[in-house]
Amino acid sequence: MALFARSLWPETVRRPYLRLAAAVVAAPVLLVALLSLLAFLVAGASEATREDTMAVTMAATRSFAVVLPAFTLTFGVAGVAVAWLMGWRGVLSWLAIGAVAGATAALVGVVGSGGIVVSRVLIAAAIGAAILILIRWIAGIRLR
User: Fold this and answer.
1) What gap in Å lies between CA 115 and CA 111, rounded to an integer?
2) What integer pLDDT is reported at residue 112 of this predicted model?
3) What is the pTM of this model?
């Protein structure tokens, strides 16, 4: 099957499938940590008390810790499968696939809830692109 061929990795990469599985787990964890740090910095600059800062940070971290792995295991894995099936190894193609996957996930999320908020779709596209590019980087997928 073309989907499970080593077409994405140079011959020098050892255990590519294990690296891909580790990347699918590590990418959202890394992004949760980075976004939680950003939430802490923003909350620290805008909240009046230490308790309020920690409350905002914890709420953001809980949201990130649920949403990002869920995205990665659904739309993210689908994006990886599309890139793998098409044999796309380039950075721009993975960024584009991630952006489309993120935007699609945001649009699917609002199907029954009312209107589309463009800023949320754009943020989801950026986060999707970040996760897919992290997966590509951690998995060792390179141009030949």
Assistant:
1) 8
2) 67
3) 0.87
